[in-house]
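Reviewers of the previous submission asked for a worked example of the structure-prediction workflow described in the proposal, so we include one complete record here. The input consisted solely of the amino acid sequence. No template or homolog information was supplied to the procedure at any stage.
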Amino acid sequence: MSNTLVGALIGAILAVVALQFGFWGFVLVVVFGLIGALVAAITTGKIDRGALTDVLTGRRSSR
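From that input alone, the workflow returned the following structure tokens.
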């Protein structure tokens, strides 16, 4: 699928969620979606877990 089609599908799903559950339901779906995307990126190796913890703790490294 193209990026345009994926973006349109995600927009349609979020619109239905916003209409069905209101603003806070929409925010909750977006937050959980971002958490899921982060977990997926870490498990597939696209994001280095060590580098992520360094960024979140404020450490600087030359990795």
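The mean pLDDT is 88. We consider this example representative of the routine output the project will generate in years two and three.
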